[in-house]
From TrEMBL:
PROSITE patterns: ZF_UBR. Residues 202-247 are annotated as: Disordered. It holds the Pfam family zf-UBR. It catalyses: S-ubiquitinyl-[E2 ubiquitin-conjugating enzyme]-L-cysteine + [acceptor protein]-L-lysine = [E2 ubiquitin-conjugating enzyme]-L-cysteine + N(6)-ubiquitinyl-[acceptor protein]-L-lysine. Its EC number is 2.3.2.27. GO terms for cellular component: cytoplasm. Residues 202-221 have a biased composition (Basic and acidic residues). Keywords: Isopeptide bond, Metal-binding, Phosphoprotein, Transferase, Ubl conjugation, Ubl conjugation pathway, Zinc, Zinc-finger. A zinc finger (UBR-type) spans 40-112. Coiled coil: none annotated. GO terms for molecular function: ubiquitin protein ligase activity; zinc ion binding. Pathway: Protein modification; protein ubiquitination. This is Putative E3 ubiquitin-protein ligase UBR7. The lineage of its organism: Eukaryota, Metazoa, Chordata, Craniata, Vertebrata.
Amino acid sequence: MSAEHSGSPREDTVSLVDVLQEDEQLEEEASAVLGGSDSDHCSYPQGYVKRQALYACNTCTPKGGEEAGICLACSYKCHEGHDLFELYTKRNFRCDCGNSKFTNLQCKLFPEKEAANSKNKYSHNFFGVYCTCNRPYPDPEDQVEDEMIQCIVCEDWLHGRHLGCVVPDCVELQEMICEACMNHHPFLWTYAAHLAVPRAAEEEQQVKEESSGEEVKREAKEEEESTSNDSKAEASDGPSCKRSRQESEGGCRLKELQAIGQKIVQSGAVFWPSPWRSKLCSCISCQKSLAAAGLCFLLDESDTVLAYENKGKNSEQERGGHDPLMSALDNLNRVQQLEIIHEYNDMKTELKDFLQGFAAEGKVVTPDDIRQFFEQQQSRKRRRFNSGQFYCS
């Protein structure tokens, strides 16, 4: 997604502070989304990748045809110059590039692909539209500033104002399940009554008043059972957490919560705090139910987009530790190394001083300013060369 200038002189100039801040933010976002994906090799041989950055090509698979998704590398190598929809990330997806959905294109990176990927899941996102309003993003006809939030179940993106609830603070640290997915999997409402982010103080207080008596009884019963069974558990299996004993004894946390009967208004999207997945029941019965519903990923805390983004950022930081300049210097002799290092340090210092002057005076940097700076650099380099100046050890 990009923005275009209308061509007026003022729109071609921006403050240095704005440039630096925008560049830093874009780099961080790119590292988060793309850092965990390979930009050189098609992901198809890896099978159904747990989570990866995906794109849809409007040039090759326009609306009215079959949905198809391509990996990061194929978006660069096979679809350069095409009209692409950025899908952010999707889970358990295998690259479609060049398969039967593409009538006039063969994958340049991995041409030997099966006709279709039967386990891939598609949505209207692959045609560049999102939310319940079925609109593109960004939407040229929508003048309302609103954030888009991804449902972790259907992985569609929805406008905050179309979620049927108030978007909580620190939403970037939370996960959201849309109302349609909550209703499609009703057992999630039981968990929501106990684990979800409270929607409003009044609603939270009402729920507490309705269930406080039963909650106290349940906690007392659990404490009594825990105390009586501690010695047996330690003697047989050694120390273990309450969740482990519950699973080994066949207890079901979901049934316990259902028995409590705590209520929640069953409408609108639901937001969940970051540790909520670890509190879901993983007894054999629940595992089978989740598998049948295609929701096994809910028990996997590494499935979250936040975990994927952190992996991308860490990978980018590791790659950043290998300076390409230093790698190139290894192939030069000592005299050449010193000359290059001197030139590099000179230019870095002068560019920093040049830009700091603009920042201190609150001025903008124009293309002419940058051009003039490098012309001066070239002029100084020629003067040093003509004077016979060089460096050696």
